[in-house]
Amino acid sequence: MFKKIFTKALLYNVLIAIGIIVLLLLIVQSGLKTYTRHGESITVRDLRGMNLEQVKTVLSDNNLAWEVMDSVFDMNKPPLSIVDQNPKPGSKVKQGRTIYLTINATTAPTTEIPDLVGRSSFKYAKMQLESYGLKIGDPVYRPDPHLNAVIGMTVDGRNVTPKTKVPKGTIVTLILGDGLGNSRISVPYLIGLRYDEVEFKLKGYSLNVGAVVVDDGVIDTAGAVVYKQIPEYGSGNSIRIGEPIDIFLSKELPSGIEVHPEWYDVVDTVATQ
Predict the structure, then answer these.
(1) Could you read off the pLDDT of 137-171 as tens digits, one per residue?
(2) Measured between alpha carbons, how far is 233 from 158 in angstroms, rounded to an integer?
(3) In the CATH hierarchy, which fold is given to the domain comprising 183-272?
(4) CATH architecture under which domain 110-177 falls
């Protein structure tokens, strides 16, 4: 009898102890969840493009803090608007987390105009100006024998010199050579020269080879000789700097064509228009 009572009492005590332990575990687990907000997270909204007042409202409603960490300047975005954020949009964070913001500055920082005149092509000048945070306007062409060479720069119609300080985002207009120019020279004499000699000669005068008419039987164009040119060499004949001269080539000079080597170096500037 005593044995049965003892066994029954012991069983009740064990069950009560187990119940207490389970209850304590549940209380502890619930407390931990409450303390750590386990399983609770907030999806960070995309704040880019908002102004600071909008950001304050959005983050406050989600129990998030904010701090401006940096500023940049983009003339295409409103002043004090959000340009970037960390954590990124869509990130999962806990309440109270600080969102770090990059805002668009109210005024543009200044930069210097690089030295490009006389030493740059349009393509290189464009890359350089963009690397300085400047914009490129439509180029303006002026008479000059060097095609696409930078011969000047303007901002709002005014000439600018290297190291001039302007706000970033300023539009710079490049003045480029048109490859022709207004200066004219007498037409050079090319009859009897090989094609490779003509190329070298015309380049020295800032002229170009135009159409090349090659007679049948010519295999080596570079070694073929000029027997006709347009425009022709002669008294009063002139050509604008940068313009082409058409040439006719043959393997050998046709009969009846006279060559006057003494005329090869008779080239003068004859006019400026």
Answers:
(1) 999 988 777 788 898 999 998 999 888 999 988 99
(2) 43
(3) Trypsin Inhibitor V; Chain A (3.30.10)
(4) 2-Layer Sandwich (3.30)
